[in-house]
Each structure stands twice: as structure tokens, then as C-alpha cells.
Amino acid sequence: MLKLCARLRQQVPLESAQSTKHGVHRGMSSVTIPPPACMLRPLEAPFRYLFGPGPSNVPPRVLAAGGRPIIGHMHSEMFGIMNDIKKGIQYAFQTSNNMTLAMSGSGHTAMECALFNIVEPGESVLVAINGIWGERVAEISERMGAKVHTLVKTPGGHFTNAEIEQALAKHKPVLFFLTHGESSAGLVHPVDGVGDICHKYNCLLLVDSVASLGAAPLLMDQQNIDILYTGSQKALNAPPGTAPISFSERACHKMFNRKAKPVSYLLDMTHLSNYWGNDGKPERTYHHTGPVSGFFALRESLAILAETGLENSWKHHTEVAEYFWKGLEDLGLKLFIKDKDLRLPSVTTIAIPEGYNWKELLAYIMKHHRIEFTGGLGPSVGMLLRIGLMGYNCNKANAAMALAALEDALKQCRMSKA
Ligand code: PMP
Asked: Which residues are noted in the entry as substrate-binding (predicted)?
């Protein structure tokens, strides 16, 4: 070891001597941009109560896992950790799909991966839009050259199976997209029966569970979902930046029998399935460098979910949400989703109370309580406030703290200049 260090140190003068000979002295390169002053100050990341729709606060155990020493992304131990993650996702999704993995990227990466791999340019997709996530999927599909058909409701609305069937019969899409937990409206969409209807029309079902996984019941195999994805930063409580996804046999058949390669190299499932050891080949070859620390943290968060048990996690989110909803109603606030069964337990939405400026309410709560709540998103901007209590943050003490902050803000911010 000592010998190696000595050799490394010796290389430096040798190299500089060589460069000087050719007229370039590496030690005296002429930089014109000075080191920025901010980079000479230590990192500042204040503590905040993240009670918005995500990211959520991360438990110390998950932070510690993410802070462990880096290992190589192609080391056998890393492959072992990725195999564990795959099993953890199969449990969280309730699927036995072999084609299960985590994307190196946020929820959008999984969304794009599903669309880029499943749909070929010119093919039809049907997108249920009742908030921002359907809008996003429609836009991505359009960008990649698909024929996009939409089923549209205002935020908070949902689609009956009859409406979905009618649209499938009319447009004959290869893929139907539905958001399970519409975080921009606070709605949990019914999924029962939708997969069967899709298959009747030879269509695959793609479901977004970024905001609902671990908080509201979802059973990928039993509900015949073909592609399901989620994010790391919501009820799973890992840092943002990884996104579990799974593909059914049907979905694999479609994506691995394409006429043309998917437009994205990074998100091409032929490569990703090899990277995750899902393609049956004896060797995994380099495709991209996965987020090693992000995968450590994701493994830990999936371990917590496995220890807790999915059913306990769903029950716990519902109990805390119901306690919170009651507290909100006691404050005289109106819940945006009227039907209790359609309320997303992880993200509660409340109508903006009359006589208040919603931006002022949020700013007051952040300034005086260090709590993040958010306003609407996309089509729900200006309609509602969003409060997320998920995973590690999901407990009655936090719900009480959120209620107290709201009560205080309602007293202090009344009849502003709005
Ligand atoms: N879908 C839903 C339902 C979401 O709530 C979010 C994140 N707010 C996303 C997709 C996108 O995820 P990300 O921000 O991680 O890309």
C-alpha cells in the first residue's frame, strides 16, 4: 500500500516535467474564472418539516444507508443489493414479474421509460387526465410521436370503468394510462377491473403510483396492471432520484418485439434488463453508472416497508389521514375530495378558504413553523392546498403539528390583500 502511494506521488512531478517540455505547465494553467465565493462556504441545508406532496423527510436509518462508502456499480456486492431491491419492489408492488427494477432517476424517468419502450411512433395511446400527471404523459407521448387520445375530467374527478371501456373501444390504443394517486388533486383512483377491460381490447395498462405506493392498496398482479412505477421520495421515504418500475409478461412481449429501437438509449429496457440481471444472460455489461448511494437508501426504505408490512402501512396511512381530515373539518376547512373513499391518504387536499391568499398562508407557515405545505399543481393551481403526511412523516403528532400551524395561519393571515 505504502509503495503504491509513493508511486502515485512520484507520478506528479514526472508528468508536469513532461508537459513543461511541450510548453504547457499544468500547474500554471491560466484560469480566467475564479472559484465562486459560494463554493468556499460550507453547504447549508436547513431542517424543514416536509409536509408537502414530496419529497418527504427521510428517516435517519435511510440517510445512514445512503451515506455508506461507495462501492463500484458493477461489483458483485452491488449486484446483490440490486437483487434485493428487485425483491423489495416485487413485494411493494405485489408482483412476481421478473422484469422489475429501479430506474436511475426520478418518477419522470420511470414514466418516460414506460412510454418510450412500450409505444412506437404512430401507435395510439389513451391517457386519463384528471390532474397534472395525465397531462404530462400526454405531452411525453405526443413528443415521441404517438397518437394521443385523452379522457378528461377536472381535478378531483374520476373515470368509471364504463367510460374507460367506451374510450378503449373507440380509440383502440396500445396503452392506457391511469394515475393511481393523483397528487395534484388528492385523489386515489379505483383500479379494480380496469386491467381486465384493457386486455379485452388488447391494450396494456400503465399505472402511476408515485404518490400512493405504500399508502393506499394497490396489487399489481391481482389488478392486472401491465406496467407500474413509483418514486423513491414519497411514502417510501428514500431521497429523490430512484424510481421502481415493473413490466408484466404481456408488456415485455410488446416492448421486446418492437420494429424500431426506443428513442432513448439510457432508458432502453434491453440494456436496463441486462444491467438488472433480468434478461437471463450470464453476464451483466456496462450500460450506465447507477446511483450507488441512491440504491443503498432505496434498499433500506424497501426493507422498512417489508418489516412494517404493506397492509399495516396502508392501515396506518388511512388512520392518520382520517384523524387529520377530522381536524381539518374541525377548523372549518373544506376537504377538496368529498368522497372519503376517493381521498388519497398520503396527500390531503383542502379547498383554499375564502378570504385568504393561499401563497400568503404557505409563506406564513414556512416562516413561522418551518413546515412545507404546497399549493396546487398544473390544473389545480389556485384551487387547493396540499398537505402530505407519508411514511416516516405519517403519524398523529405530525398531523397535530400541521393542524396547529394551519390554525395559527388562519388567525394571522385573514382578509389579506388577496
Ligand atoms: N406522478 C405523481 C403522481 C407524482 O406525485 C409525481 C411527483 N410529484 C410524479 C409522477 C413525478 O415524479 P418526480 O418528481 O420524481 O419526477
From this structure: 386
